[in-house]
Amino acid sequence: MSDSTHLVLSLSCPDKPGIVHAVTGALARRGGNITESKQFGDSDTGLFFMRVQVETTVPRLELEKDLEALAGDYAMEWSLDEVGRPMRTLIMVSKEGHCLTDLLFRARSQGLPIDVAGVVGNHEDLRAVAEFYGAPFHCIPVTRETKEAAEAELMALVESLGVELVVLARYMQILSPALCERLHGGVINIHHSFLPSFKGARPYAQAHERGVKLIGATAHYVTADLDEGPIIEQDVTRVAHEDSVAALRAKGQDVERRVLAQAVRWHTEHRVLMNGHRTVVFA
């Protein structure tokens, strides 16, 4: 289609007959050409989820008016965005750089659709990594006494930089419940364990003590409940009885970076929809 725009629509609403017909019909009446469509009805929650990519020459504002009308009829939550638009992203780190380096490399060379607005570290250790990739680095130290002020500084950065997504790339600090609420659905964390096993600190040491044969990593949305947010992606790798804690950590870091990058990609492509304490992922 000449002079067309490629858009992605994601939505959720109470499940009932006619939703797919209503949505696709609205797009068709505007001359939209659907290039991808996936849907899922969850019998447990009674909710319906849908993701549609459509090419259209109709102005986006006109489509949004149509969708707003549908939202009223179906109690629908929806979003509309351009396919492939890089999402303004802030990456937060502490001292370990494997996830940060991987995200920055993928953004530069492998088409990960993020526009890195900056990197925030609570230590200076990874400044050189961020600056190598041309990402502004902001050091915001955090102590028990300065946590409130540090989070206020972080929130000011989020607002001033137009940040849409915050990624905790092995950021070894717990966000306050108030901050989690303000950024709800917009913060992804990588936990170095296959949740719900080995929550909290030192999961590789916990795994070593239990003699597990598989270790993994979990990318999830951040909530006020530690390591309890809706899971986006997980993966595992095999380990052996002779592996030390250090060996487990080395193997696990490779899984961590892959899982985090996949979760970030799916989120920025609008493939992840919240379903209570779970997610629907249209991979």
UniProtKB/TrEMBL annotation:
Active site: D227
Keywords assigned: Hydrolase, One-carbon metabolism, Purine biosynthesis
Gene Ontology biological process terms in this record: 'de novo' IMP biosynthetic process; one-carbon metabolic process
Name of a matching Pfam family: ACT
SUPFAM superfamilies: ACT-like, Formyltransferase
Domain called ACT: residue spans: 8-85
Keyword Hydrolase attributed: yes
GO terms, molecular function: formyltetrahydrofolate deformylase activity
Pathway(s): Purine metabolism; IMP biosynthesis via de novo pathway; formate from 10-formyl-5,6,7,8-tetrahydrofolate: step 1/1
The EC number(s) this enzyme carries: 3.5.1.10
Catalytic activity: (6R)-10-formyltetrahydrofolate + H2O = (6S)-5,6,7,8-tetrahydrofolate + formate + H(+)
Keyword set includes Hydrolase: yes
Domain of life according to the entry: Bacteria
Family that this chain belongs to: Belongs to the PurU family.
Its job: Catalyzes the hydrolysis of 10-formyltetrahydrofolate (formyl-FH4) to formate and tetrahydrofolate (FH4).
Protein name: Formyltetrahydrofolate deformylase
Organism from which the protein derives: Actinomyces slackii
Organism classification: Bacteria, Bacillati, Actinomycetota, Actinomycetes, Actinomycetales
